[in-house]
Design goal:
There is one protein chain. The protein is mostly helical. The protein has one domain. It is 57% helix and 0% strand. The protein contains three helices and no strands. The longest helix is centred in the middle third of the chain and has 17 residues. It is elongated. The chain starts with 10 loop residues before the first helix and ends in a 13-residue tail after the last helix. The relative contact order is 0.07.
Length: 63
Amino acid sequence: MEKVVRIFRSHRESDEADREYFRSLTPQQRLDIFLELLWRGRNGDEAAERLERVYRIVELSRS
């Protein structure tokens, strides 16, 4: 994936540019980007693998 830096004057202008960019991609290119991000989220971050999930059960009183 090619990295490009662009400067915008507002968030709205940035959002519009994002929408235009993704509209210009083919469905296969969009899928490739999605799979790359999914892979990075699952395999690219060692710290996330070490995080423990903690759950707390709270009993509510019936009044």
